[in-house]
Amino acid sequence: MDQAVITVSSRLRVIYVALGVIMLALWGASLIPPIETWGDPNEDGLSYVPAFWATITCLPVGFFLLAGAAAGRGRHAERARTARWLAAGLLALVVAFLIFQYIGDSSGGS
User: Fold this and answer.
1) What gap in Å lies between CA 17 and CA 29, rounded to an integer?
2) How does pLDDT run across 42-94, given as a tens digit for each residue?
3) Angle, to 10 degrees, between the axis of helix 75-106 and the axis of helix 48-71?
4) Beta carbons of 22 and 65 less than 8 angstroms apart
5) What pLDDT, on a 0 to 100 scale, did the predictor assign at position 2?
6) In this predicted structure, what is the pLDDT of residue 1?
7) How far is residue 43's CA from residue 93's CA, in Å, rounded to a whole number?
8) Residue of 95, 96, 63 whose CA lies nearest to 82
9) With contact defined as beta carbons under 8 Å apart, do 93 and 23 qualify?
10) Which pLDDT does position 60 carry in this prediction?
C-alpha cells in the first residue's frame, strides 16, 4: 500500500513555524504565575492549572507544527496539518477569553 507523500509549500511552512512559536509562547506564558508564586505559603495551587492545561494542549501542538515545518513532507506534514487547525482553535479561544476579560475589567466591576 503505497500512499502519496504529502509535501508542504514554503508559505505553509512559514505559517507552521509562526503558529508553533505562538503555541510555545503561550505555554511559556502559562508558566509565569507558578514561578512568581514559588515558595509563597499563601499560594493555593490554582496558578498551576493554566500551566497544566497548556502543557497538555499547546506544547504538543507547537512541537507538531515545528516538526512539520522542519520536515516539510511525510507523516510530520500530515500531523502538522491537523495541528494547524488545533492551534487556530486554541488561539481563537484564548483571544475570546482575553476579549471577555477586557470587557469585564472595563465595565468598572458593577
Assistant:
1) 18
2) 888 888 999 999 999 999 999 999 999 999 888 899 999 999 999 999 999 99
3) 140
4) no
5) 52
6) 47
7) 27
8) 63
9) no
10) 96
For residue 85, give the C-alpha cell: 487547525
Which three cell numbers mark 110? 458593577
Per-residue pLDDT reduced to its tens digit, 9-47: 899 999 999 999 999 999 999 999 999 998 888 888 888
Tally Cβ neighbours within 10 Å of residue 22. 18
Sign of the CA dihedral running 2, 15, 22, 88: negative
16, 8 Cβ separation under 8 angstroms: yes
- DSSP per-residue letters across 3-72: PPPPB--HHHHHHHHHHHHHHHHHHHHHTHHHHHTTT-TT--STTHHHHHHHHHHHHHHHHHHHHHHHH-
- Which carries the bigger pLDDT value, residue 5 or residue 58? 58
Q: For the beta carbon of residue 31, count every other beta carbon within 10 angstroms.
A: 15
Cα 79 to its chain centre, rounded Å, is 15
